[in-house]
């Protein structure tokens, strides 16, 4: 039985995705759920949130097999096979498979094998490459007996993200309060549907191929990509842009999510804060974020010794409640028992 994979994805960047995953991973670990975080964004920002730069530089320079997601799949660009992942322990019940800026070079390999996976013969190699991320994630999860795999990917609809989504059981969509996030949401729904359909064809093709009998133990992901909801950034108040400008876009999210992602009828008149598909409204937490980055810890773990006193201490408590509520909601949507 495979470990569930939850990917946070929007092809619009700048929606707080990496910070969200970072804090959610820490919260799940504090609730005694064992988590593997996999950084599949070639920018590796999530890796930078967990590890010191000197440590990242050391890992990248050594280029040892399995020490980053790219080093795990790199042998597939030649005649080799997947290298077992080497996880970085972050805290009790929290482990990281680091990202790598070199991962972008794997895009061409994935693109080339996509059409090859629909041929009548010699399918094992293409299917092995296309599902390499899933194979690596599941090996990592089995190694530490993880309860869940959390994945960060970049804001695009390229071949890397397609293979990540094939490996994904559940998708959560972070959104900003702007036209670009709304357009990203409109693009994302049809893309997920298309990728799901195309992968189902490849699974059927594999089942009917002679290669399957030659590799009876070769497991493949189902490519569920089940949307569990969206997360919306809280309004930011700027002097040159009143709150009503944000409301214009935020209040359109419930309908666009239903029509573009779920293929349901539009929810005319429903407000975002009343939408059952809205997992949470993510607050800004203002000065807590840089404080957390300085001390390399989640904002809900900041203490008086870190400078979280007075109103900051109250904000820390609020953040802890908010992320615990979000973790509880996501656990319910993904079948994880807390």
Model description:
- This protein has 338 residues and is an alpha/beta fold.
- The chain has one domain (5-277): P-loop containing nucleotide triphosphate hydrolases (Rossmann fold, 3-Layer(aba) Sandwich), CATH 3.40.50.300.
- Helix content is 46%, strand content 13%.
- The chain is built from 14 helices and 8 strands.
- It has an 8-stranded mixed β-sheet, with helices on both faces.
- A hairpin with a 2-residue loop joins strand 3 and strand 4 (94-97).
- The radius of gyration is 20 Å and the shape is globular.
- Mean pLDDT is 93; it is low at 237-241.
* Domain count: 1
The radius of gyration over CA amounts to 20 Å
SSE order: EHEHHHEEHHHEHEHHEHHEHH
Low-confidence stretches: 237-241
- Helix content range of the residues, please? 40-55%
* Beta-strand percentage range: 5-15%
Looking at this structure, what is the CATH superfamily? P-loop containing nucleotide triphosphate hydrolases
Shape: globular
Distance linking N and C termini: 19 Å
* CATH topology-level fold name: Rossmann fold
- In CATH, the architecture is 3-Layer(aba) Sandwich
Largest sheet: 8 strands, mixed
Strand order in space, largest sheet: 3-4-2-5-1-6-7-8
Q: How many β-strands, per DSSP?
A: 8
Assigned CATH class: Alpha Beta
Structural class: alpha/beta
Integer average pLDDT: 93
> So how many helices?
14
């Amino acid at each position: 039985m495979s470990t569930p994979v939850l990917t946070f994805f929007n092809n619009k960047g700048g929606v707080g995705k990496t910070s969200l995953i970072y804090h959610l991973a820490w919260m799940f670990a504090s609730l005694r759920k064992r988590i593997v975080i996999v950084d599949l964004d070639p920018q590796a920002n999530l890796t930078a949130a967990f590890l010191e730069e000197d440590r990242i530089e050391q890992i990248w320079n050594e280029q040892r097999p399995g020490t980053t997601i790219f080093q795990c799949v790199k042998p597939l660009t030649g005649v080799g096979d997947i290298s077992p992942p080497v996880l970085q322990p972050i805290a009790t019940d929290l482990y990281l498979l680091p990202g790598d800026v070199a991962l972008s070079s794997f895009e061409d390999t994935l693109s080339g094998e996509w059409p090859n996976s629909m041929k009548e013969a010699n399918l094992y190699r293409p299917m092995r490459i296309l599902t390499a991320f899933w194979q690596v994630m599941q090996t990592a999860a089995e190694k530490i007996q993880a309860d869940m795999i959390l994945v960060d990917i970049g804001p695009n609809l390229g071949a890397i993200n397609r293979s990540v989504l094939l490996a994904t059981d559940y998708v959560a969509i972070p959104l900003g309060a702007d036209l670009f996030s709304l357009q990203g949401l409109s693009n994302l729904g049809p893309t997920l549907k298309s990728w799901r359909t195309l992968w189902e064809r490849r699974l059927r093709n594999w089942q009917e191929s002679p290669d399957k009998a030659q590799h009876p133990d070769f497991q493949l992901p189902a490519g569920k990509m089940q949307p569990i909801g969206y997360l919306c950034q809280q309004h930011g108040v700027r002097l040159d842009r009143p709150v009503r400008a944000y409301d214009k876009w935020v209040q359109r999210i419930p309908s666009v999510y239903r029509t573009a992602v779920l293929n349901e009828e539009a929810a005319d008149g429903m407000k975002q804060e009343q939408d059952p598909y809205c997992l949470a409204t993510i607050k800004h937490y203002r000065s807590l974020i840089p404080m957390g980055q300085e001390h390399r810890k989640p904002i809900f773990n900041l203490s008086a010794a870190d400078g979280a006193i007075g109103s900051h201490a109250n904000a820390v408590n609020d953040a802890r409640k908010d992320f615990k509520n979000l973790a509880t909601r996501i656990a319910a949507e993904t079948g994880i028992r807390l």
